[in-house]
Design goal:
By secondary structure, this protein is an alpha+beta fold. The chain has helices at residues 3-19, 25-33, 43-64, 122-129, 139-143, 148-153, 202-207; strands at residues 92-98, 106-107, 120-121, 136-138, 160-162, 167-169, 181-189, 194-200, 212-214, 218-228, 242-243. It has 7 helices and 11 strands. A hairpin with a 7-residue loop joins strand 1 (92-98) and strand 2 (106-107).
Amino acid sequence: MTRDDKQIELYQDAFNFLLDGDHELVVYGVLKKLHITKGNTYYDDMVQEGMLSFVEKYIRAINLKKEPEYYNAKFGDTITADVTPAATAALKVAFYSEDKANGTLTALKSSDFAYDYPALTSDAQTTALGKSTETSFTTTKLFGENGPFEKAFNKAVNSYKADAGTLADASKTTSTTGNDKIGFFGQSLNNGTQRYFYVYNPGDTLSNNATNQAKGNTIKVVLQKYVTSTQLPAEGTKDANANTDYIAK
């Protein structure tokens, strides 16, 4: 069907709607409200103009429910187009914290982080969570130690490398980490002298999710919670291309 054929079909549908039932009474009602009677020399012309106006409004209303019909547009018309980017990652995540390995999980909100949820670019999300064109996944491939998710997550803005010995398990009071750890600062505690610090735990993430996953599923991402006396650094420069669309909210 050509563009002209579509336009003719739209007008025909509009006129059929006008003549169906009592819809044409809308036109006569408007004229009556304007005190334009049959005695007016231009009454018949105004009826025709009213019907044409009805048809135009009908077509415009129909087009609002479809993708924009650009061939109906006239100079000065407003055309609305949906430019929301399609999701590029197949999976979403929900963050949980634990005070120690294999501990009880607590859901994390954006406000639990010092600088909101970590944001990732669309490319990073696709790498970490699979392409939207794929339909099935294994958690071991994406969320295992040094896997795609951990690498992308640890490169997000505001990630921080905590030196060995500067972190203590949240359930303890002494520094116990023997290695450097990359993570994200949380909220303050003990009158601002310390802060929580969240580090991705691949082992507990895998143990809290089924191995086989389908497109659209939400993965429980487990972050081990530590306590640190390290001062909160200034917020990093935000990446204009990064967002938190990968997080189930």
